[in-house]
Amino acid sequence: MKAAEKASRTGGAKKIVIGLIGDVCAGKSTVADAFRRHGAQVYDADKHVHEIYRQADTIEQVKKLLGAEVLDASGQVDRKAVGRIVFNDPAKLEKLTKEIVFPRTTAAMKQALEAFHASEASALLLDAPTLFESGRDDLCDFIVYVTAPMERRAEWARARGWDANELSRRDARLSRQSVKRWRADLVIDNKGTIEDIDRSVSESLRKWTAALK
To answer: Is 127 within the bounds of a domain?
Structure first.
């Protein structure tokens, strides 16, 4: 749904919810920081996933699904070990996300939405790469898609300590990227400077807020 349709759908609401998705290692965190600088609240899905993996019931479910080898010496979930298994096993990836991760992140996201609507903030950014896969894109008034040149993405992937194939494995996890990009209200090509991103975010927030008044 494009911006004009969404503005009509919201019926004059002054608060906007924005979904942030995009390519792996394209700089979504940099874009989220820009929205934060311009006054938006930010829900960081990855931060909540880290917290979820520390919960005892989650640890037990992950161990049951993937085996004890995904736990470290202290009994905590080793997310790198989890990634090595699930990004090579689509069936296990689907069970992990749909049965363990998505139900818990949905609850956390609802709490973030409630806190946002009770606050003075006019915009909430949902930094959630699997927004479409989890079916939560319908919570958003606008969608931002972040991309970047492959050489930049590969460089940032290496900085995370990923091997040469990890980026492509993670790309494959996020389905229908071209469709999601087409559905976005704003595409940020992260090939310039932080100032370029700031300018794009500022202009878009101003336009979207005005459209929904």
So the answer is: yes
